[in-house]
């Protein structure tokens, strides 16, 4: 298919679908970045505390890339997008909204499942027809490479270490898996994005993700929840209550004085 | 009290291909692969980096500071100082490209 060099070359339908996709991508990154930043100072090991916090900053940087692209498409500026929307206006999957509950196993596993999905999606976007998005995806993918190595290493070690660590990881997997499937919630944007060659269908990405995570989970000695029902709703603005309290925390300073410099 | 910390790995950082690996600090880690992953965020997130080494601290054999006098130059032997010679910058290791030595 012919490359699309500029946003100006998009039809209205494709453009609207792209806006929807960018909100999904950006909101996943921002909300997970915030969740992971909640571990700063609290993670079980100093080195990991720093690594996890640094990756949280990476995710927020990725959100900014997507939000800037949205701004170029006529949406508000990145700060306004991040800090002044209501929960229902967010398009993140439930996986990233769920509270940490001081559960390190769950948060590590969530990060791994998410990073695997991002890698699959970014690879597809790199091969897609929309040139500005493919360029951004290539940049982001290089940081994701480390994230996935990090997550995979932890999952393999904790899955195979002791009975307790195995048990915690298995429980976390059962809890996280339906929400991870929710990352691939089909939306009305699937059709126009596929037709324009910008991004494959969500069901196709889900297939690729499943074949990427299955061998790692198997090597970690973890049982994959085969009958898990995907937790949908996030892509159309239906979120767990936990997103509301996260946004209250995240937006508190901005709401006091939106014009403040900080 | 027993030490519950993980083993220590010393971390060496290379800013550009062909540069010497410089000692930057240490990390606690369960194994070498994990040490590399953790070292990346501790020591390579603010400055340029193309390569990291991690070395288990036990692998290092050090001289004794009490013997530091053996390094002193008591008489004039400036004739053997090798200013002007080009010295190799890199240490060869199985994971490092062989085309870097100069």
Can you describe what's shown?
The complex is a heterodimer of chains A (262) and B (102). Chain A has helices spanning 12-37, 46-72, 78-83, 94-97, 104-126, 131-160, 163-181, 190-195, 202-219, 241-256. Chain A is globular, with a radius of gyration of 18 Å. Chain A has a single domain, classed as Ferritin, core subunit, four-helix bundle (Ferritin). Chain A is mostly helical and 262 residues long. Chain A starts with 11 loop residues before the first helix and ends in a 6-residue tail after the last helix. Chain B has 102 residues and is of the alpha+beta class. Chain B has a domain at 1-61: Ubiquitin-like (UB roll). A three-stranded antiparallel sheet of chain B has the order 2-1-3. In chain B, a hairpin with a 7-residue loop joins strand 1 and strand 2. Chain B is flat and about 50 Å long. Chain B starts with 7 loop residues before the first strand and ends in a 46-residue tail after the last strand. Residues 98-102 of chain B have low confidence and may be disordered. The A-B interface holds A 45-48, 50-51, 54-55, 146, 149-150, 153, 157 and B 6, 27-30, 33-34, 37-38, 40-42, 45.
Q: Which CATH class of the domain at 1-61 in chain B? A: Alpha Beta
> Helix-strand pattern of chain A, N to C?
HHHHHHHHHH
**Residue fraction in strands of chain A:** under 5%
Largest β sheet strand count, sense and barrel closure of chain B: 3 strands, antiparallel
Name the features:
heterodimer; A: 262 residues; mainly alpha; Ferritin; 10 helices; 67% helix; B: 102 residues; alpha+beta; Ubiquitin-like (UB roll); three-stranded antiparallel beta sheet; flat; disordered C terminus
Tell me briefly what this model is.
Helix content of chain A is 67%, strand content 0%. Chain A is mainly alpha-helical and 262 residues long.
Write the layout of secondary structure elements.
The complex is a heterodimer of chains A (262) and B (102).
Chain A: H1 12-37, H2 46-72, H3 78-83, H4 94-97, H5 104-126, H6 131-160, H7 163-181, H8 190-195, H9 202-219, H10 241-256
Helix pairs in contact in A: 1-2, 2-6, 5-6, 5-7, 5-9, 6-7
Chain B: E1 8-14, E2 22-28, H1 32-43, E3 51-56
Antiparallel strand pairs in B: 1-2, 1-3
């Amino acid at each position: 298919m012919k490359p699309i060099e500029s946003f100006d070359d998009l039809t209205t339908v494709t453009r609207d679908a792209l806006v929807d996709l960018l909100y999904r991508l950006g909101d996943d990154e921002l909300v997970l970045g915030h969740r992971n930043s909640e571990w700063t100072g609290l993670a079980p090991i100093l080195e990991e505390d720093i690594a996890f916090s640094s990756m949280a900053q990476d995710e927020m940087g990725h959100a900014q890339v997507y939000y800037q692209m949205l701004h170029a498409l006529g949406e508000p500026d990145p700060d306004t997008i991040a800090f002044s929307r209501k929960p229902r206006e967010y398009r993140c999957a439930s996986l990233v909204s769920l509270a940490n509950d001081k559960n390190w196993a769950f948060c590590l596993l969530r990060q791994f499942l998410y990073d695997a999905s991002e890698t699959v999606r970014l690879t597809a976007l790199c091969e897609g027809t929309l040139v500005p998005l493919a360029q951004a995806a290539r940049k982001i993918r290089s940081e994701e490479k480390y994230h996935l190595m990090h997550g995979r290493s932890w999952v393999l070690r904790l899955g195979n270490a002791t009975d307790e660590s195995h048990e915690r990881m298995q429980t976390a997997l059962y809890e996280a898996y339906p929400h991870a499937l929710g990352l691939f919630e089909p939306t009305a944007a699937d059709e126009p994005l596929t037709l324009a060659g910008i991004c494959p269908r969500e069901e196709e990405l889900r297939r690729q993700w499943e074949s990427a995570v299955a061998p790692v989970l198997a090597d970690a000695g973890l049982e994959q929840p085969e009958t898990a029902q995907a937790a949908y709703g996030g892509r159309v603005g239906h979120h767990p209550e936990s997103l509301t309290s996260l946004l209250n925390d995240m937006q508190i300073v901005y709401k006091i004085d939106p014009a403040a410099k900080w | 009290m027993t030490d519950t910390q993980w083993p220590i790995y010393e971390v060496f950082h290379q800013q550009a291909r062909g540069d010497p690996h410089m000692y930057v600090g240490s990390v606690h880690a369960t194994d070498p692969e994990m040490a590399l992953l953790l070292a990346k965020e501790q020591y390579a997130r603010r400055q340029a980096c193309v390569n990291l080494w991690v070395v288990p601290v036990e692998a290092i054999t050090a001289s004794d500071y009490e013997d530091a006098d053996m390094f002193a130059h008591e008489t004039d032997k400036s004739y053997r100082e090798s200013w002007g010679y080009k010295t190799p910058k890199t240490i060869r290791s199985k994971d490092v490209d062989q085309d870097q030595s100069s």
